Each structure stands twice: as structure tokens, then as C-alpha cells.
Amino acid sequence: ELGIRIPRPLGHGPSRFIPEKETVEVGREDAAMHALFTDAFTTLGRLDNVTLVMVFHPQYLESFLKTQHYLLQMDGPLPLHYRHYIGIMAAARHQCSYLVNLHVNDFLHVGGDPKWLNGLENAPQKLQNLGELNKMLAHRPWLITKEHIEQLLKTEENSWSLAELIHAVVLLTHYHSLASFTFGCGISPEIDCEGGHTFRPPSVSNYCICDISNGYHGGEEHPGSPAASLPTTQSVCEVEALMEKMKQLQECRDEEEASQEEMATRFEREKRESMFVCSSEDEESAPARDVSRHFEDTSYGYKDFSRHGMHVPTFRAQDYSWEDHGYSLVNRLYPDVGQLLDEKFHIAYNLTYNTMAMHKDVDTSMLRRAIWNYIHCMFGIRYDDYDYGEINQLLDRSFKVYIKTVVCTPEKTTKRMYDSFWRQFEHSEKVHVNLLLVEARMQAELLYALRAITRYMT
């Protein structure tokens, strides 16, 4: 009667990929989760959908929230509005309008100049100078050299200090990775965000208007989702086959060890093969508002590092690793952050409930390591003590397509890709995979940037 338009949510639940009834319902969470929700609400001013999906793994979520809070709100080299603007620049590189919109609000809330939001060219030159590093970190981090670092630190009146640069690099890698999580888990925008609501009344054919007030949104189960499909013989066999391979690999490991030459050959083979893994589906990806004004050179994207005759030398983990080199550099220039990141990497890498689909008491360390090392292999990072032959045994084609898409071109991730790997596994296990992808990607980007900073300093 008053002519007030009432928004209703467009999506059903926090994720487009996971049926709403399988996520944690707010109000029915246990005490530990309730404490996490309270923390998230206190720091973010909202309970966002990323939190509602990450809470499948409370131990990781706690570490993630603590790190993000420190990066955005605690004492640090960069002013608050710069931090949110860098978050916008990083998320925009992957057209992640969900994260861009959140940080646009936060940027204005901490007193950022609205003119900067009209495009990167309206931001201070100092932030514009970060554009090149943002672009390379997001798409081709192996090309970063000490000269790129030097340009940022040496440009007279708009120069960055080392501490500021470390803070910026950590923020950029954090938001590139978070964009991977957002697309990889099909995170839906909240009702108050752009793309999260509609003013159209629900169609009568679907359900009665009074259903909305009763919390029913008419969301039908997608036939492809793991929850909807009853255990088929094929997918049950898929789990059994994977466990059998893990057992065989363990036995081979115990019996004989491949030579260093053979290990190097297997790495090169896997690196080459990873180039031929590509997603052919563009049609289903989530429609995004144009956020390209927040970065320059829109045509620059992911390219495999050894394409077109380019030879990028292998990054050998024993020459520069997070544990021995990156961690101490970050902690020295931006105290406590090295510690927080280290804890987050460890939790994601070591997280296990010793289950695989319907099986209990399973040691999944071999599988977790294969996923982590496959991502680093795609970035040209090699561990001398790892047999890359294991990757082909443990990760099938559809899984590799999903991993590469989420890590390298997350904006192209589709529900079909999510549904097509590990069909018999729980959604919580697929979210766990995404946590591994996020952290392995972030660490790979950081390693290239920190190595370049170290070379500049020495």
C-alpha cells in the first residue's frame, strides 16, 4: 500500500554449489561455531557468506578471521583506506564483484575518497604504481623480478617503503586467493549486496508468498550435486579406487625410491602436462558487474609459464622456501604477520578428520600433499623430495580441471566443474579442497614476490 519495494534473496543459502540445507543454519550452530560467528560479526560488521561456508572447518576459519582482521584493522604500515583499496584492486583482477562490493563499502566507511572508486587513474600515483605488481602476482607471478621491486621502492615522491610493500603484497595475495575461494565454492552475494536480491514478487506457480515468511525459498535440489545423487556404483568405486591407489603408492614408496634424475623428469612431465589441462566451459560462470575500472591492462590474464618458447627456470623450493626464507622476511618487516600466515598455511595443509567420503580412519596426507604440490607445480615450484608421479595417480582429469580453473582463472569456475569431481565426497570435503587451493596459491604468489624482494635487498 505504501509502495515500498521489498527485496527478497536471489539465491538459496550462502553458496550456489552447496544445497542450503547442508550448510550450517545460523541459530542452530554449536557453542564453538557461535563464538566464531560472533568474532566474524564483530570484525566485519556482518556475518558474510564466506564465513558461513568456511565454518565447515572451524579451526581454519578462526585462523583466517584472525589473519584478515590483523591485515585490515590492526596497526600496520598502511593506512586503513589504502588497505581496502588494495583489496578492491586485487579482487577486481579476477572480476570478483562480490569482494569488490564488500571493500567498496569498507573503503568509504573508513573515510576513503569516493573519487578513487571511479577508476584506478583517480587514485594516488603510489597506488597506481602497484598495478603492475598486482597484475603479475594474480596471473603470472613467475615473471616478477627484483627490477619490479626496485621501481616501486625507488620512485621519488611516490615510493613505497619495504614495510609498506610487504603489507601490500600480503594483501594482494590474500585477496587473489580469496577470489579463488569465492568462485570455487560458488559464494552467493548477501541479500543487501548487488546481485543478492530482486524486487520481483515470487511467481505464483513456484510457491505461495507466505512461504517466504516461513523460511521456504523454493530451492530445488540440483540433480548434479553430491547431496542429490544417491550413491551410484560408479562414484562409490571412485572412492575405493582412490584409496587403493594411495595404498599401492605407499607400498611402492616403502620398497624403492626413485633417483634424483627420475624425480626431476617426473616434475618436468607433470609441469608440461598441467599446461594441457584447461577448462572449456565459459557459459555458466557467475555474471559479474564490470569491475575492470579498478585495474589497468584488462587483456592481461593467466598464461602457462612455458608457452610460446618462453623458458622460465624452475623455482626450487630448497633454494627459497616459505619456512626458511619467506616467513622471517615477512615477520621482520611486518611483525606478527609471518606468524599468522604460517599458522594458516599449516592448518590448511595438515587439516584432516581421517575420513574419505563414507570411510573412516583414513590417512589422507598423501592426497593433501599431491593437491598442494600440483598447484605449486603449475606455478613452476619444485620440491626435490617429492615424487611427481604420484599426482597423476591420485588426481583425475576432472579434478585437475577444477583445481587449475579455481587457482588460475577462478572467474571461469562453474557448478558443473564443482559437481564433476569427487562425486561421492561430502561438501565439507570439497570446501576443504578449496582451503588447500587458496593457501597453496597464496604461498606460491608470496614466494615469487618475497624472493624478488630478497634479491633486491641483497
From TrEMBL:
Q: Does the keyword Oxidoreductase apply?
A: yes
GO MF, one term, reads: L-leucine binding
Q: Which InterPro entries match?
A: AhpD-like, Sestrin
- A Pfam family recorded for this sequence: PA26
Cell compartments where the protein resides? Cytoplasm
Keyword list (alphabetical) reads: Cytoplasm, Oxidoreductase
Q: Which GO terms describe its cellular component?
A: cytoplasm; nucleus
Q: Which reaction does it catalyse?
A: a hydroperoxide + L-cysteinyl-[protein] = S-hydroxy-L-cysteinyl-[protein] + an alcohol
GO biological process terms, alphabetically, are:
cellular response to L-leucine; cellular response to leucine starvation; negative regulation of TORC1 signaling; positive regulation of macroautophagy; regulation of response to reactive oxygen species
Presence of the UniProt keyword Cytoplasm in the record: yes
Domain of life from the UniProt record = Eukaryota
Name the family.
Belongs to the sestrin family.
Task: State the name under which the record lists this protein.
Answer: SESN1 protein
Species whose genome carries this gene? Nothoprocta pentlandii
Give me the gene this protein comes from: Sesn1
